[in-house]
Amino acid sequence: MPTKNWPHPVLDAQTEDYPNCAFQTRFQVRQTKLDYKVVVNFDLGCESLENAVKAGDAQFLVQVHCVKTAYREIFPASVEALEFAIPEHELRDTFALSPFIVARREFDLASDEFAATFKGLKFKMRPGAVLAVGLPAEYEADKVFDELKNISAIFEVIKQPDRQAEAVEYDLTRNKIAIALPHAVYDEYRIFRPRPPYRESFVCSLVLPGLAAALEALGPEDSDGGDSLRWRRALRRKLKEINKSEVIKDESYKLAQELLEWPFGRALQAIRIAESEES
Amino acid sequence: MAVWESAPGDPNRGKRGELSAMKLRYLKSLALSELYRVAQSGSPKYTAAEAWLDELFYGREYLAESRLDIGRLPDLRQPTSDTELFEVENTIALHSALQNLNRSQAADDRLWSWLAHGPYWAYMRKRWPVEGIDNKSGYIKEHYLLGGSRSLVRHGLARLWWFGHATYMPGAADPYALTRLLLKTTDARQSIMERQFWRNQKILHPFLRRIAHWVDQGVDLYVPRERFRDLCKLMNLTGGSAVLDCFGPREIAAVVDRYAGDQQAAAANLGGGKVSAT
Hints:
- The complex is a heterodimer of chains A (279) and B (278).
- Chain A has 279 residues and is α+β, with helices and mostly antiparallel strands.
- Chain A has helices at residues 47-54, 183-192, 198-218, 230-241, 252-259, 263-278; strands at residues 22-31, 35-45, 58-66, 71-77, 81-87, 93-103, 107-109, 123-125, 130-133, 137-141, 155-159, 169-171, 177-181.
- In chain A, strands 3, 4, 6, 9 and 10 form a 5-stranded antiparallel beta sheet that branches. In chain A, strands 1-2-5 form a 3-stranded antiparallel beta sheet. A 3-stranded mixed beta sheet of chain A has the order 11-13-12.
- In chain A, strand 12 and strand 13 (177-181) form a beta hairpin.
- The longest helix of chain A is centred in the last third of the chain and has 21 residues, at 198-218.
- Chain B folds into 2 domains: 1-181, no CATH class; 184-278, no CATH class.
- Chain B is built from 13 helices and 3 strands.
- Chain B has a 3-stranded antiparallel beta sheet.
- In chain B, helix 3 (87-97) packs across helix 8 (158-167), helix 10 runs parallel beside helix 12 and helix 11 packs parallel to helix 13 (249-269).
- Chain B is elongated, with a radius of gyration of 21 Å.
- Chain A binds chain B through residues 4, 6-8, 33, 61, 63, 65, 67-74, 76, 88-92, 100, 102-103, 126-130, 143-144, 156-162, 171, 173-174, 176, 178, 180, and chain B through 1-3, 29-30, 33-34, 36-38, 40-41, 43, 102-107, 149, 152, 162, 166, 196, 198-200, 240-248, 251.
C-alpha cells in the first residue's frame, strides 16, 4: 500500500500517527450459489477511536470493490463484527475488501494516543473522513466452483488465426491457456480427441508442454502482473495443494507431470488397453 | 453458477450480423480465444466492410444462446462526423434494450465481443475505425474486445451500456436525464468515467444533479473544459482523505458548491458577473 499523506492523524500501518495503537481485520468469505457471504471481525487497539465508535462519532466500514463489474459499495458497522452478503451476479474475477474506521458525523478528533507531533491538537472531522485504515484483502469470484479440480479445464484448444501457420503455439495472456493448432491439425485433433488412447496422448503432447511453460511464466506470488488471469489463480491454488510455494525453472516440466498426475504412464496404459482390445 | 445459465444456440441461425434476435446470444469461450488471437495479429479483417465471423468459424458452432429474452436489438445511429457521434441516443437505445443484464453479464467479454463483431459491426467500423491507428492490435483489443480493467468504459458498445447503467434513474419521469449530463461533453464524460467514483451511483447522481443546478443558475461548469476537469480533481482530492461513498447528497453537493462558489468569486474578481452563461 503506498504511503499517504493524510491531512489529519490516521491509524494505519504506514504512518506513526498513533504509535502504540493498531487496527486489524479478519475476513472470511464464503461463496454460495446465490451470493458471497462475508464475515468481518475488526480488532481495534486504540482507546480514543474505540470511544469515538462507542459515542457514535465514528464507525467501522468495509468498502467492497470489484474492478471487473464496477461494483463499489460500503458496509458500515457500529460494533466489531459485521456480516453481509453480496449477490453472486454483482462480482466477477476478483474483488477487494478494504477496512476503515470513518467519521460518522462531524466531531473534533483529539487523542492522548497521537504521536508527539499532534499532541494537544484537535482536528475537525466531517462525515466520511478516514480515521483508520486496515489492510485490504482480495478474493476470487470465480463463476465455476469445481473448475479447478480438473487441471485440463484451464486449457482450451483453438485454431491458429493464420491459416498458413504450421506451429503449435501457446497463448498465456487469456483467462485460459490457449493451445493454438494449425488448421489441418486442429480438424484432425477434433476427430481423435475423444477417443482413447489418443486423448491421453494429447495430454502428453499438447497439454503438458503448455502447462510447463505456464508454470515457468507463473513466477513468485507477488510478481508483476499479479494473478488476474484465471489459469494463474488455478495453478497457484493447485501448487498450494501439493505444498509448493514457488516453481524452480528446471523443475517445471516435472512439476507439470505431477499436476497432470503422470500423463505418460496413463497414456501408455491407454495404449496397452487399446492394443489388447484389438488383438 | 454459469454467468448466462446458457443453453447451446443454433449457430446456423442468423449469424450474419442481423439486428433482430429473440434471445441474447454470445460467443463461446473457444471462439472468443480465437478472436483474441486474430486481434493480437492486428488482422486486416478489421478493415472489412462486412462482418466476418461466419467465415472465421466456418462450419463450427461459435455462438451460444442465453436465457435473456431481449426481443430485438436496437439500431444504433452511426456517426456522421467526428463531433456528431449520437452517444446519448445510442446509450439510451442500447441500455434500454439490455436493461435486464446484471453487472456480471454486462462485464462479459463474450457478449460484447459478439455484438461488436456481429450485429453491430457496421456501427463499430464507423465509430471505431482502425484505419490510421499505429497500434492496431491494442486499439482493437481496447474497443472491440473487453480485456483490460478500464475496458468497460472503452469497449465500443459496453461503454454505452455502462454510461446508461451508471446514470439511469428508475422510476424518474426522464430516467436518462443524468445520462445527458454525463455525455454533455466528451471531456466531462472522460473526466468522470476515468475516475473511480462513477462506480457508485450514490456519488455520481448527486454530483451530476448539482452540476445541473449550477448550470441552471448560469454557472456553466462544463466550460471551459479545464473547469470540469478541476472539479473532478477536487472530487478525487476529497476522496483522498474520506470515503466518498459515506457522503450523502448534501455532502456531495457541498463539494460542487465549494468549487462553483470559488469559480464565481474568481469571475467576480475579474470583473465579470457570471462564470459562463449557459
